[in-house]
Amino acid sequence: MASATGIPETRREDEPLLGSPGDVLQEEGKGIHLNLVIGTAILAQAGVWALAAVIWTGIFTHDLIFFSAHPLLNSAGILLLTQSILILQPTHTPDQKRLGTAIHFTTNAFSAVSLYAGLAVILYAKILHHGAHLESPHAILGAICYIFLFLQSLVGFTQYYTPRLYGGVNNAKKVYKYHRMSGYTVLVLLLVTVMAATRTDYIHNVIRIKLWAVTIPVVLVLIGVLPRIKKQKLGIRS
Question: Across-strand partners of 8?
């Protein structure tokens, strides 16, 4: 069925927030790994790797302590989470979606392990040194992220692999857009949490990572990821 302009209506499903549909479509016959760099993804890659470099350089140029694992693991988790989003966004055929979802799930699993290992480190460090919990904006945002991530991952896994829990595939599909929305929300929250970390005692006084040094990479990640969002998948009609 064509619109008044003569463009098939089905193309609207692939229309990103910015740009034309072809800007974020995986070409048939091309390797799925190219999804990591097509369109604005290259900006997201530059940003997330720069963010990791800033954090890892700051940590490894100072004496390593048990707590050092916390920012290292969390930044690795964000790096993996970004890859899992970028790899899936351009898929549009059934075969591409199946492979993309499998890679998305696997990468997210490693991301979650890394992020929750980072949580275990900070919890143990707090217990070891009798530290107070949830004192800073960074700690509060971090707690929100971990809770949100758990719920988002649980819903994402069950709606795709066990749709009977939702009363069947059709009902499960109705939840997809909320899973996608929450996924982007988690990414944004994690990035804001990293920015808030620059005001904590360890990062501000010991590692001395400046706010601007993480803000620039964070902005690049958002510029690279958000424009590739397909409006129809979020229930946005134009």
Answer: 2
56-83 burial: b if 16+ Cβ within 10 Å, else e? eebbeeeeeeebbbbbbbbbbbbbbbbb
Locate 59 and state its tokens.
């940590």
Distance between CA atoms of residues 238 and 235, nearest Å: 10
Q: Residue 19: pLDDT band by 50, 70, 90 thresholds?
A: low
Q: How far is CA 8 from CA 11, 38, 227, 237, in A?
A: 6, 24, 22, 15
Non-local (6+) Cβ contacts of 116 within 8 A are 146
Angstrom distance (rounded) from CA 234 to CA 238: 12
Q: What is the DSSP string of 105-170?
A: HHHHHHHHHHHHHHHHHHHHHHHHTTPPSS-SHHHHHHHHHHHHHHHHHHHHHHHHH-GGGGTSHH
Q: Which pTM does this prediction carry?
A: 0.88
Structural tokens at position 167 = 């009363």
Helices and strands of the chain, counted as H and E runs:
8, 0
User: Is pLDDT of 5 > 60?
Assistant: no
Q: What CA–CA distances, in Å, run from 112 to 65, 76, 159? A: 23, 10, 18
> Which candidate, 225, 236, 230, places its Cα nearest to that of 15?
230
DSSP letter (8 states) at residue 93: S
